[in-house]
Write a structure and sequence with these properties.
EAL_dom, Endonuclease, Chain A, 35% helix, seven-stranded mixed β-sheet, 15 strands, single chain, Cyclic-di-GMP_PDE-like, TIM Barrel, alpha/beta
Amino acid sequence: MGFEVELPPDEEFDDIMREHLIEPEFQPVVSLVDQRPVGYEAFARGPEGRLRTPAALFEAAAEAGRSAEFDELCATAATEAFREAAMPGLALFVNLNPDTLTNETDGVAPAYAELMADNNVVIEITEKAVTRRPAGLLDAVGDARRKTARIALDDIGVDPASLAAMPLINPDVIKLDRSIIQSTSPDSHVVNAVLDDARRRGAQIVAEGVERPEHVDVARSLGATYAQGWLFGRPGPLPRDIRPSDQPLARVGPRPVARATPYDVLALIEPVDRTSASQLQAMLAGIEEQAARATGPAILVVNIGDLRFLAPDSPITYAFLTSRGIEVFLIGHGVPFSPGGRVRGIPLAADDPLREERTTLLVGTHYGSGVFARQRRHPTGDATFDAGTCHEWDRVVEATLPLVSRVKNEPID
């Protein structure tokens, strides 16, 4: 039996919120070509005391259940300071807290919408936002891009899921975590995956944590064209006299989310054959075996149509895959939001056309494989399928996005 414990209110945090006692600070993001700023990242500072640092502030906001409200206050403060400083040609980097995306909101919070109305903005998101709130996040990313914002994927290298998230977000900017830049032996898999992704879509790489001259050499060797860190300036007020860099920030075209099913997407480009249920099961299992052999993070999306078609050993397989850094999404009528462990569930309505399909899609940082099928019925009642395979990365991603975008209404812990 559990008991709910009511925590005492944090009066100091309440005062900060009531009096708007947030002081924005800004750190330059510079081009490694001329070491001049292309923009500034905004940070929040509280009054002197225990809630001075951003980490302490955001922790207090979470404990008070006011993360979304606090996030909007920070965005508003950064917007006002950036406007007053009149920074033409420079980008404002701001963090998008996934907790600001409510179950009812499809798009960015009002404070961010105002921010993007008349500023050159780069919205920074982390892989946690992708794995916790994929549908809301994809909506917010699309909305932000329609408002001319760029998208940066932050903290790359901290969690394997951040690499798996890159194909879904299609970022304009990829920010390598300071742990990669300051490591004596950077993870070659992370670096190669980031470089491959950047080359494939024209994204730019920002190296974080550049604190010493030798870190600049490391950043360049890892493919970074921009950098951020104490070597170029600590967080503080915006300077009055700035000579912006001549190097432009990249803008990667948004990846459209198809409104069709995976079968509709992939059957247009791949041949389909009449396939028995047992043959199809072997084909689908082959994609899961590829996932088990994957040497890096990836996303596996499995549509079983209905929970009654879930094989008895599948939960064990999916638990093993998630332990290896694979994000697993299970789709079907009767599937709960939390099927078990780290597996994410996507329930289907009784009349959803996806119930007539079977799909297993594997998306890695530079590869994609999938099996797609649609059920057809014999007069005898035996089920057979029109089925095909696809190994074209972009197409598999295209087929994956509309499925992941269905992950809605997940309560925020």
